[in-house]
Amino acid sequence: MAKVNFLVGSTLGNSEYVADEMAAQLEALGHQTYVLLAPQLNELQESDYLVLVCSTHGAGDPPDNIVPVLQAIESEKPNFSSLKIAVCAIGDSSYDTFCLGAKKVENALLTAGANQIVDKIEIDVQQDPVPEEPALAWLTDWQDRIN
Known about the structure:
Layout: E1 3-9, H1 14-27, E2 32-36, H2 41-44, E3 49-54, H3 67-76, E4 84-91, H4 100-111, E5 115-116, E6 121-124, H5 132-142
Parallel strand pairs: 1-2, 1-3, 3-4, 4-5, 4-6
Helix pairs in contact: 1-5
């Protein structure tokens, strides 16, 4: 089975909880999962798949816990061409910066050569106050691509 890292950008814990639930779903299928809350750049390359689960903070910024690895990606320009990614963005549509924090991290990963394997999901907490429900449904739709 595959090794799947969850790169989590979270301020209040919602993204972390969503990542934990998604990791549990993949573990039940026999995959190895790791939830990275303070990741180092090398940890991103130590998996077959990377699932970004990220909220937006402040004026459209990624949460503070993910900023160091984002800055490392942008400055060190690693080669992520063998990395397969999926993006779960969590935001609040009442703000004009809806899901912008996750989009910034996603763009950095793609610029570094990562390959997106599924369309990103943008979860609006105005419509889905329990964000793990749409996240788990989204994962169920494509989890068979993980091998």
